Description:
Multidrug-efflux Transporter Regulator, Chain: A, Domain 2, MerR family transcriptional regulator, MerR-type_HTH_dom, mainly alpha, repressor, MerR_fam, DNA-binding transcription factor activity
Amino acid sequence: MTPPGDFKPIEIARRTGVSIRALRLYEQHGLLKPRRDANGWRVYDAEAIARLHQVLSLKRLGLTLSQIGELLARGGVDLAAALEVQESVLQAQQGQLDAALASIRVARNRLADGEALAVDVLIELTRQVAQPTPAHWGEAFGPLMRRHLRPEQIEDLAARNAFAADEANGHLWEGLVADARALIGSDPSAPAALDLARRWRSAQGRFTGGDPALTAGLRAVWRQAISDPALAPNVPIDAEIFDFVLAAGLMLKAREGS
Length: 258
C-alpha cells in the first residue's frame, strides 16, 4: 500500500489532469525525479508534486523543456515564485477574458434586438485587440501605486522622476515595449530576448534603485493593471508582453547565475 502523502502516477494523473505520458516525458528530460517504493514502483511525494508545479508554471510561460531544465538545474524558482508566475498569468488572462466577454455580450444583445452595432460598440470591440498606449502611464498606475506602495516608496519614486512624462523616459519605455512585442513567440533564451530582459531590468532599476521591496510592489501594480478590465486598455503592455519579459528575465537570471 502506498504511504499517505505518496501517490502513484495514475493517481497524480487523475488528480492533476497531467497525463502519465507527460509525467514520463518530464522524467526523461530530468525535470521530475519520483522516488521508487520497495517494489520499484514510481511514487510522487510533496516534493515531486511541487517540482511538477514548477515545471508546468514555467511551461505556461512558453519555455521549452530544455529551457526549464536549465532553470531548474541552476536553482530554478521556489514554490512561492512559481505561484507568483501562475497568479500573474491567470490574472492577466482573466482580466482580458472578462473585458472581451462584456463587449461581446453587449454586441450580441444589440444584434438580437435587431439593432445595428453603434460606433461606440464597434470601437469597444476593436479596443479589445488594440491595447492603445496612454500618453502618461501614471494616469493608469496612480491609484494602484497608492494601493500597493507605502507613501515613502511613492515619494522615493517621485524623487527619481518615475512619474515624469518626459520625452526621454517615454521613448525609453516605448522602445522596450515595441522590442518586446516584436519578440513575442520567439525563444525567451535567445540573445535578443536576453538583451531585452537586461535592458528592461536596467530601466526599472533607474526608479527602484534595486530595492527588492519596491520592485515587488511595482510588480503587483503591473499585475493588477494588466488584469483589471477597466485599466488594461490604458496600460502600455498586455499579458503576452508581461509573460514574455518574465520568461526572458528568468532565463537571464539563470544565465547570470552560472
